[in-house]
Write a structure and sequence with these properties.
The chain is built from 15 helices and 16 strands. The chain has 467 residues and is an alpha/beta fold. The chain is globular.
């Protein structure tokens, strides 16, 4: 956190900011967007020299692309939504809690999404769900949707510990399945689901709802990671802070007990599984690796209300090459928000919400595309704002930094839904399938085990084996 003198002067020193571990000051970028005009073209495609493979997906430092980036190319591997008049797909959404209703809202804008059923055993939530999907039929038994041969795809948005039964039944019924992440609250359940999904993968699409893998911003940044913009990867850090008890009130004790499943180890993997899983998965994805070990710590600092899951956790993941991810999350305080940071010998890249920035080191070699990138002064150094779809906006005569958030209907759940339905139509695997979903659960639940024991868990190959 900046001291009082720095705050009064309104300065932001990037090197101090990263060293101190606080990225809250980057909120200045969003707060004063009118004074900043930073956008860039897409990351170039770089092919490693013959015989030399990238380490962790990152080409050797100093490698320079032969040509500038081409407008319109994508930095990642998740297909951006392109269909406007897409063939309709009948969808049933099972589980109408907060996340289920968010999916319903997003599906209103996904091309070809035809929500046919909304399902929840608690009838009191049906009215709210039907407001988002007025043409759907409300049901309490999900098997009615599975029995309807017109329904092609099932969204499973129930509490995590209830996923397995529904997913297995849906796959058995021949449906395509979108399962919210985490897949399960136990590794055994997640493995059973992943194994069932792999058994039918030639004819059915299984999608694990790790939203970053289909998010254009994360895919955009992935392009820079893959082309070696970081140089030699040194360190990673992910943070998630939000003051929230996770406790939900209800009219009856039975309903309240059902709503508060996240507060019990018997039904929840706590912060690491429900939240940390997503950010750890980003590191797995960007590094093209799973961790070798995790050391964890946890405690209840704020919400001493009878729960037996931690409200504060810290974990240290070791990746190949002695690269470490430091992960921290708390429900006790909101300061610093949520972000992912990757540091290398040539630059640092920060992702926060729908924004990302690159900070180059003064001795970093030229990558070639910088001459096409708009730059901004950040404290005593120069940063580059990484804007997904910047090339398309430039071609439309728009300034990316001022027009990136104009379409509020296209959030992360929109892109995830569009990717899922497009995969069904094109009969192509999801970029967030059974393998990725299972690996993420293993990492998160073993991290939770480490935090509970206050010790270290070493990952073995068989832990990630679906069987």
């Amino acid at each position: 956190m900046a001291d009082n003198d720095e705050q009064e002067k309104g300065t932001l020193n990037r090197r101090d900011l990263l060293q101190r571990g606080s990225l809250a000051a980057l909120g200045l970028f969003a707060a004063s967007a009118a004074g900043l005009h930073a956008e860039e073209l897409q990351a170039p495609q770089v092919t490693p020299p013959p015989g030399k493979k990238p380490a962790n997906g990152v080409p050797p430092a100093g490698q320079t692309p032969a040509a500038p980036p081409k407008p319109g190319t994508e930095g990642g591997n998740a297909k951006a939504p392109t269909k406007v008049n897409a063939a309709p797909i009948a969808v049933a959404v099972i589980g109408l809690g907060e996340q289920g209703r968010k999916h319903l809202a997003a599906l209103n804008y996904v091309p070809g999404a035809n929500v046919t059923y909304v399902c929840d055993t608690y009838e009191g939530i049906h009215k709210r769900a039907l407001e988002a999907a007025p043409k759907a039929q409300a049901i309490t038994d999900y098997r009615r949707a599975l029995d309807d041969k017109n329904v092609q795809a099932i969204y499973v948005c129930t509490p995590t510990h209830q996923h397995k039964e529904i997913v297995l039944a849906a796959l058995q019924a021949g449906k395509h399945v979108y399962c919210e992440a985490p897949l399960a609250s136990s590794i055994e359940d997640a493995r059973a689901m992943a194994k069932a999904a792999k058994a039918v993968e030639k004819k059915q699409i299984f999608h694990a709802g790790m939203q970053q893998r289909t998010n254009p911003q994360h895919n955009h940044v992935l392009g820079f990671i893959r082309t070696g913009a970081l140089g030699k990867v040194a360190n990673a850090r992910s943070v998630w802070n939000k003051k929230d008890s996770w406790r939900r009130a209800a009219a009856t004790s039975e309903r309240e007990n059902a709503l508060n499943w996240r507060l019990k180890q018997a039904t929840s993997g706590g912060l690491m599984n429900e939240i940390g899983l997503h950010q750890v998965d980003v590191t797995n994805w960007f590094m093209k690796a799973t961790p070798l070990s995790v050391t964890g710590f946890g405690s209840i600092q704020q919400w001493r209300d009878g729960r037996d899951v931690f409200d504060t956790v810290q974990c240290l993941f070791e990746y190949p090459g002695q690269v470490y991810l430091t992960y921290s999350a708390t429900l006790a305080n909101s300061f610093d928000g949520a972000y992912e940071l990757f540091q290398g010998s040539d630059s640092a890249i920060v992702l926060r919400d729908s924004r990302a920035w690159m900070f180059k080191e003064s001795d970093a070699p030229a990558l070639g595309w910088e001459v096409y990138a708009s730059k901004e002064k950040v404290g005593d150094e120069v940063g580059i704002q990484l804007v997904a779809d910047a090339s398309k906006l430039l071609l439309a005569g728009l300034t990316p930094s001022q027009n990136r958030d104009t379409d509020a209907t296209k959030g992360s759940l929109y892109f995830a839904g569009d990717h899922f339905l497009t995969a069904i139509r094109e009969k192509k695997p999801s970029v967030s399938g059974a393998d990725e979903g299972f690996q993420a659960v293993v990492c998160a639940l073993k991290a939770n085990d480490a935090a509970v024991s206050g010790g270290k868990v070493t990952f073995t190959k068989d832990m990630f084996d679906i069987g």
